[in-house]
Amino acid sequence: MQDRFLAFPAEQHPIVLQIGGSNLDNLAKATELASGYAYDEINLNCGCPSGKVAGHGCFGARLMYDPEFVGDAMSAIAANCDVPVSVKCRIGVDDRDSYEELCTFVDKVVSKSPTRHFIIHARKALLSGLSPAENRKVPPLKYEYYYALLRDFPEVHFTLNGGLMTIEQVSASIRQGAHQVMVGRAAYNKYEFPF
């Protein structure tokens, strides 16, 4: 059964497994199960605003409220795998969206775990009143937060995500100093995938 969820063809390398949850034991067990599948990185989802995830499940973007827990989670995940670990997050959640609060989140996770890679969706998540689709469009993009992180955390690798729709936008971001750029929905919406 786990092959159905974890196996992938070798030509998909490099490939990252994203996991989600709010239970340290379960996150460690999920990582342990995945360790036999040769993923190149394990990523913790701290950015999904879906009510099914951030609401009832108390994970996804809601985890940004508890950087201590995320640091502990990343430490538990890293202890159960031999590949790099990363966090995908927003720049904030609800009214906790200042740059200082984002820095506190990053600093706490880095200080408590070996995490040195963050994928930053450059808009905050609003957990009440917006659908997941609206959360990808309505809160304003604040790329300046991303570029400030590059300046303030030189030992950490940051990937920019959110609102990037064209090759020209990706190239401009790289020219501005972005370490890497993630294009998700634009690629998903433009191309058909066989899954």
Automatic annotation (TrEMBL):
Source domain of life: Eukaryota
Source organism: Triticum turgidum subsp. durum
Alphabetical list of InterPro entries matching this protein: Aldolase_TIM (IPR013785), DUS-like_FMN-bd (IPR035587), DusA (IPR004653), tRNA_hU_synthase_CS (IPR018517)
Alphabetized Gene3D superfamilies for the sequence: Aldolase class I (3.20.20.70)
UniProtKB keywords: Flavoprotein, FMN, NADP, Oxidoreductase, RNA-binding, tRNA processing, tRNA-binding
Domain DUS-like FMN-binding stretches: 9-189
Protein name: DUS-like FMN-binding domain-containing protein
SUPFAM superfamilies: FMN-linked oxidoreductases
A molecular function GO annotation: tRNA dihydrouridine synthase activity
Pfam family, one: Dus
Cofactor(s) required for function per UniProt: FMN
